[in-house]
Amino acid sequence: MGRVGPGLARDEGQADDHAAARRAGYVRTYDEARAAGDISAMAGAALALAATQTFGTVPGRVPAFLHEAYTLARGEQRARLAVALARAWAYGYDPARAAEFAAEALAFAEAQDDRPLLAAALDAQLLVHWGPDDLAERLAITARLEDTVAHVADAESRMSAHLWRLTTALEGLDLAAVRRHRRALDLLAAESGTARVRFFSASRRCMYALLTGDLEAAEQARWETAAAGAEAGEPDTVLIGHMLTAGIARQAGDVAGLAREAGWYEPYSVREAITWIAAEAALLWVGAGEPERARLLLHQLAGPDFGRIPRDLDWLVTMVTLTEVAVATGAERLAGTARELLLPYAGRGVVNGGGAAFAGVVSDYLYQAGELLGTGDAGAWAARAAGEYERLGASWWRDRLPPGRGPAAAPREVHLRPGESGVWWAGFQGSVTAIRDVKGLHYLRILLQRPGADVPAIVLSDTVAGHPGAQAAGGDLGAVLDQQALSAYRRRLAELDTDLGEARSWADTGRVAKLAAERDALLEQLRAAAALGGRMRQPGSAGERARIAVRKAIASAIGRVAAADPALGRILSATVTTGTICRYDPDPDRPVRWILSERGPAAAAQADHRTGQAEPLGERNRPSG
Known about the structure:
64% of the residues lie in helices and 6% in strands. By secondary structure, it is of the alpha+beta class. The strands form 3 sheets. Strands 5-4-3-9 form a 4-stranded mixed β-sheet, with helices on one face. Strands 6-8-7 form a 3-stranded antiparallel β-sheet. Strands 1-2 form a two-stranded antiparallel sheet. α1 packs antiparallel against α2 (39-50), α4 (75-91) runs parallel beside α6 and α9 (175-192) packs antiparallel against α10 (195-211). The longest helix is centred in the first third of the chain and has 31 residues, at 6-36. The chain starts with 5 loop residues before the first helix and ends in a 30-residue tail after the last strand. The model is unreliable at 1-10, 467-481, 531-540 and 600-625 (pLDDT under 50).
C-alpha cells in the first residue's frame, strides 16, 4: 500500500522537467513582452509564472517579474499582480513582505466592489495571517471570504473559500464544518469539471479518509489526487502525493513504506530548505525503526530550545512533529521545552498543507511529553486528547493513545437500534445515521445484548427467523445442535486441548485463561445437547448453513454500518467474532454504552459491559416483515 517505486520516481522526474520547461517558456514570453512594451502581456506571463510555484519553496525570480509588471500596471490588473506578489512571498515563508501587497489588493477590491477580486485579496490576507497566533484573525477573514463568494459562480473563488473554511474547521475541531466543506469541494469539482478543482477535492477527501481511519477510501482518493494533479499541471502534486502516501503508510503500519517516504522527505527538505518536511522525515524515520536518523534530524532542527524555528504558518505542525520525535528518542530536555511552548495552543487541531493533512491535536503531544517527563498531568491530557479526537471522529488518532493511561474514559453512548419503516439508527450519540434494515443488524443486536457470551450461529439464525423453539433466555442459549455442528465443536475442543497444553508449557497465563474460557463454553454447549438424549436436528447440514449465513449477514451489516460511520464499523469488526459460535467481546480500553432500543440507555443490556449479563433472546430480535 502506498508504494513509491522507480516508476513513480521516473514520473516525478518527468513532471519536474515539464514544469521547468513551462517556467522557461513563461520567462521567454515575459522578456518578449517587455521588449515590445506590452504591459498586459508582461502581467499575463508573470501571473502564469507565479502559478508554477510549489508551496513552501524559495520563490526565485517570481517576485521580481511580478513586481516589475506591478509597477507598470494600473487598476484591476495591478491589484491582481499585488495578490500574486503576496502569495509568492507567503508561499516562500516571507509573510512580512506579503502584507503590503495583500492590503493594497484588498483596498482596491473593496473600493470597486469586485467580489471575485475581493475573494482573491482575502485569500492573500489569510496567507499573511497564517501563523500560530493568528487564529482569531483567520476565523474572521475566513467568515468574510465565505460571505463574499456566497453568490459568486467563479470556481476558483469558491474553492479558496471552502479550503480555508475546511482548514479552520480542523483547527477548531468542528466536525460538522469539516464534513460540509469537504462535501462542497466534491460538488464544486463535479460542477466545474476542472482538473485543478478535482485535485484539491480528491486530496482533501483523502485527508478526511485518513482522519477517520478509512484506508481503503484514502488509497482511492490518493490515486485520484495524483491523476487530477497531473492533468492540471498542479505544482503541488508531487508534495501532496507524498504527504498522503506517508499518512497511509503510517496508519497501515507499513514500515517499508515509511522508510521509502523518509528517504524522499529528507533530501527534499534539504534541497528546498523546508523545516516542517525535515521534521516529518524525522518522524517517518521513527516509524521506520531508524531512531538514530530521527535523533540526528531532531537536534539539527531544534537546536538547544527550538528557537531556530520561525513562528510562521508551519510552526505548530513542526513543533508537534518534533515533540513526538523527542519523546520517541528519549530527548527529555527538548520534550520539556516543547511542552512549555505548546501549552498555549491546547485544544487546537493541527493542520498541514492548507488542510491536506491532519496532524493530531495539541493535547495529544502535551500528553506524550508529560508521560515521558512524569509531570503528573499526562493522564488528564490523554483524556482530553481522546475527547477531542472523538469530536472529530478521528478514530485512528484516538486509538493510538495507549490504553490504561490516566483516568478511565467514560463509556461512549452508541446507537444500533431499529426504527420504523425498515430503518435502523447507527452511530455515536449526536451523530446518528439512518441505515436500511438487514438481517445481520438483528444478529449484531443480539450479540451486543450479551457481552462476553457465546451464542451458536444456529441459535442466532433461528431466533431472528422466528423458528419455533428458538427462544433462549438467561444462561440457556438453546441447546439444539445438529450433527455437523456437534462434530465442529468436538474438532475445536481437540484443537483447544493442544493449544492449552502449549500455552501451559510456556507459562502464558493470559492465553491459558482465554483458551480455557472458550473450552468451557464449548463443553457447556455439548452438555446441553447431551441433555436432550442425543436427539439431533435434521438434516445434518443445518448448523453449517447457519454458520455461513450468519457470518455473511453480520459481515454485510458491519459493512453497512461502516459506510455510515467508519469508526463504529471498526469497533464492531474488532469486537464481534463469527463462526459456529458467535461472540461480542467488549474492548475494555474503549468502553461503550450501547443504545439498542428507543427506550433509551436503560435498554442497553448492561451496555457498560462490566457484568456480562445477558438479555433473553425474543420476539424483538426478529426483522420487520
